[in-house]
């Protein structure tokens, strides 16, 4: 071997770590940036901030006192809003106690009682402590137009102003406060900035330090201050903020991890934050950018151990740095960076795991046979067909065996398949799936081959002293375009189709793939959907036109799929009939409907129920017995059950079908010819079929008030049915004009959206109860 041939693979091996590191790093970085832009980590960010705040919990300075207008103050005043003489008296009292400044967080934007207004202005004029009143703006929720408010002009000479507006984030939480507000009045400092004697530009914000202990804020009741109960030393020389704290005033705002807090408390928290220093935020992209630079530099290093050390140290730094920065009132958003580091670490672990798993992935761990991953690696060969064998009862058998016995089961199956396949390599999938490849030129001889292979499985398989019969079918896929592995799906569909048709094997037809996929996804869940309650019964009322009362309903099957939502009966009932899966569904609907009708009749209401009968069930030898048994079990008279059949169904297998229908009539069940007019309607069918009711299809009913031909057809059908002693039901009635026309024609019963949509049993019961009360009245 030449040196060149040796050096080439070595060069590829050296380059692999670089590709492994940088390409995932690009997508991880992009994901972390999107993560930050979408604020997806906000809940975790807030939780981490809360934990750090609890560690750093500290009291306030005590230089700002809140005089609270709380529930007790409002109850003592016995009126709201409080009269302005109340504030005048409070200002005098606070001056007597020697406060430094008085901030009043109450809007005096309009005039009130002239005497009270004069008293308040006088109190402000003689106040030694500067008076600060609020200004701000409100935003119309529809037009989003700002409306600024300020104290009435009479207060302008005696008080200064400060902004009380608060900022909310997307969650409606107050996390930052403004330094100042810009309006027509100029730039106005915020309450919190003025309280802390700090300046800042209009529009700039600072974060609130929620490590400040709210319970340490001095809060005095306004009524106590007025009555002189509060000692002078508690407020002398301090700034006082007078504001609403009563929950009834509605001046409350959402605070992280605390709940609702009055606005005046938030201003005090902001002032206490600024008194301790210049609070600032570091946005998430700053630490994320630093982490990305470190990660990129680390990707240039090929020593895996050094990379692990770098990522561990980076994660420790990302967790520890916020604790140290918080003490300096520098609040950093770190979750996107943590997400980046976690993704890098997780991806590295995943690649390591995947590499190990890849080496084990081509062999079935129980049997040792090559699995479907090994089949995936087989190169495409247009002249090779794929055979799939599905053992339908494999899960039931393997569930009863320990792992070592399951291996013996698979070995015996593989030996028989290898014998019948000419020694081909057998690939094993899950749940009793086996596959192998065969030359396409032998496909023409497959019928004999599969018959012989099926015969090998007629003898039971023995495991110790237990014997198991295997139900096996085969499918063949020979599409030259698809790879051998991609042909597996089609071959399995063919095997399932063979089982449904009672055949040993079947060739996959690609044009049937869509129908097969739909059948597998829906019909495979049908029985489970019945058991889990996804399949339920709706009831559409049937109205007696002569009395206008509800005399029964039609039971209609509904499927509420947990993933696809409501599934139309048109999408699963025809397929269920074609695949012989309609029996359990029909008996489920039949029993549910009879139970419901029996419950209604037990309250003294004569109520009939109609259920559609599938043509497939006319071949069920137990049909009549089961119907009679269900009626007896629930105590419903047989003449209150109507089974609806189409005339096409009844005459398709005339002799047998008519015999079954006659037996149903003998036990007292009412038979109805459904969708009359859409099949082979003729008098012979009406005479032969032992029905006592005709149900005219909605396609004729809907147009009888404006289509002469449809009206003639419906009228003649009603007259003919009455002459034969049969009643007539019109379905699909949706308009008043149609209902009036049917009443004139002498129709017996109607159903449709006009008289009642399909509804759940509870709604039907309430409707019947309401009708009963109306009739009784």
UniProtKB/TrEMBL annotation:
The keyword tRNA-binding does not apply. SUPFAM superfamilies: EAL domain-like. This is EAL domain-containing protein (Putative c-di-GMP-specific phosphodiesterase class I)/CHASE2 domain-containing sensor protein. The keyword Magnesium does not apply. Keywords: Membrane, Transmembrane, Transmembrane helix. InterPro entries: CHASE2, Cyclic-di-GMP_PDE-like, EAL_dom, EAL_sf, Rev_trsase/Diguanyl_cyclase. It comes from Sphingomonas prati. Residues 519-772 form the EAL domain. SMART domains: CHASE2, EAL. GO terms for molecular function: cyclic-guanylate-specific phosphodiesterase activity. The chain crosses the membrane at residues 282-301, 306-324, 330-353. Coiled coil: none annotated.
């Amino acid at each position: 071997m030449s040196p060149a041939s040796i050096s080439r693979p070595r060069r590829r091996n050296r380059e692999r770590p670089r590709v492994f590191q940088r390409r995932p790093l690009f997508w991880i970085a992009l994901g972390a940036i999107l993560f930050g832009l979408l604020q997806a980590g906000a809940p975790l960010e807030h939780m981490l901030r809360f934990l750090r705040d609890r560690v750093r919990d500290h009291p306030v300075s005590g230089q700002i006192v809140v005089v609270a207008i709380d529930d007790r103050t409002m109850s003592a005043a016995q009126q709201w809003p409080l009269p302005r003489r109340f504030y005048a008296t409070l200002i005098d009292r606070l001056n007597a106690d020697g406060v430094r400044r008085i901030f009043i967080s109450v809007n005096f934007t309009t005039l009130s009682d002239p005497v009270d207004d004069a008293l308040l202005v006088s109190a402000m004029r003689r106040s030694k402590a500067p008076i600060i009143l609020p200004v701000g703006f409100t935003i119309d929720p529809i037009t989003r137009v700002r409306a600024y408010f300020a104290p009435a002009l009479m207060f302008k000479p005696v008080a200064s102003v400060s902004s009380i507006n608060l900022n909310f984030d997307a969650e409606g939480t107050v996390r930052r406060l403004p330094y100042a507000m810009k309006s027509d009045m100029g730039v106005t400092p915020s309450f919190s900035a003025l309280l802390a004697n700090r300046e800042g530009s209009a529009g700039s914000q600072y974060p609130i330090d929620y490590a400040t202990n709210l319970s340490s804020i001095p809060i005095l009741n306004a009524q106590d201050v007025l009555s002189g109960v509060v000692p002078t030393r508690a407020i002398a020389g301090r700034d006082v903020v007078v504001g609403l704290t009563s929950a009834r005033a509605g001046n409350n705002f959402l605070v992280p991890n605390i709940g609702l807090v009055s606005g005046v408390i938030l201003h005090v928290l902001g002032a206490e934050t600024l008194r301790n220093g210049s609070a600032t935020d570091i946005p998430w992209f700053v630490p994320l950018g630093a982490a990305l630079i470190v990660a990129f530099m680390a990707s240039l290093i090929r020593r895996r151990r050094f990379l692990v050390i770098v990522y561990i140290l980076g994660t420790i730094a990302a967790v520890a740095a916020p604790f140290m920065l918080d003490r300096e009132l520098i609040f950093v958003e770190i979750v996107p960076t943590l997400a980046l580091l976690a993704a890098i670490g997780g991806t590295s672990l995943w690649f390591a795991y995947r590499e190990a798993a890849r080496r084990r992935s081509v062999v079935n761990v129980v049997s040792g046979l090559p699995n479907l991953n090994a089949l995936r690696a087989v190169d495409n060969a247009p002249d090779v067909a794929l055979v799939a064998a599905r053992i339908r009862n494999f899960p039931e058998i393997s569930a009863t065996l320990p792992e070592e016995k399951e291996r013996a089961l698979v070995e015996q199956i593989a030996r028989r398949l290898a014998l019948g396949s000419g020694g081909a390599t057998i690939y094993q999938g899950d749940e009793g799936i086996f596959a192998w490849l065969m030359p396409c030129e032998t496909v023409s001889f497959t019928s004999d081959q599969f018959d012989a292979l099926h015969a090998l499985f007629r003898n039971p398989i023995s495991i110790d002293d237990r014997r198991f019969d295997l139900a096996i079918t085969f499918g063949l896929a020979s599409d030259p375009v698809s790879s051998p592995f991609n042909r597996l799906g089609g071959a399995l569909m063919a095997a399932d189709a063979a089982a449904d048709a009672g055949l040993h094997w079947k060739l996959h037809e690609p044009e049937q793939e869509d129908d097969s996929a739909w059948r597998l996804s829906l019909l495979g869940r049908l029985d489970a959907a019945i058991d889990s309650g996804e399949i339920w019964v709706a009831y559409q009322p049937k109205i007696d036109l002569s009395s206008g009362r509800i005399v029964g309903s039609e039971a209609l099957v509904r499927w509420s799929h947990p993933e696809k939502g409501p599934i139309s009966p048109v999408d699963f009932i025809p397929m269920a009939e074609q695949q012989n899966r309609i029996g359990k569904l029909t008996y489920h609907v039949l029993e549910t409907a009879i139970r419901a009708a029996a419950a209604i009749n037990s309250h003294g209401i004569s109520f009939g129920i109609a259920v559609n009968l599938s043509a497939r069930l006319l071949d069920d030898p137990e049909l009549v017995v089961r119907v009679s048994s269900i009626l007896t079990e629930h105590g419903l008279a047989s003449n209150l059950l109507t089974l609806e059949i189409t005339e096409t169904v009844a005459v398709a297998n005339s002799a047998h079908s008519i015999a079954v229908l006659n037996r149903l009539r003998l036990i007292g069940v009412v038979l109805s010819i459904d969708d009359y007019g859409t099949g082979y309607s003729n008098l012979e069918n009406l005479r032969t079929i032992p029905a006592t009711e005709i149900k005219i299809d909605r396609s004729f009913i809907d147009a009888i008030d404006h289509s002469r031909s449809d009206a003639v057809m419906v009228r003649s059908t009603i007259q003919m049915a009455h002459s034969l002693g049969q009643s007539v039901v019109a379905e699909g009635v949706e308009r008043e004009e149609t209902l009036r026309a049917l009443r004139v024609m002498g129709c017996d019963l109607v159903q449709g959206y006009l008289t009642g949509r399909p509804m759940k049993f509870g709604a039907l019961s309430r409707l019947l109860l309401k009708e009963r009360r109306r009739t009784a009245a």
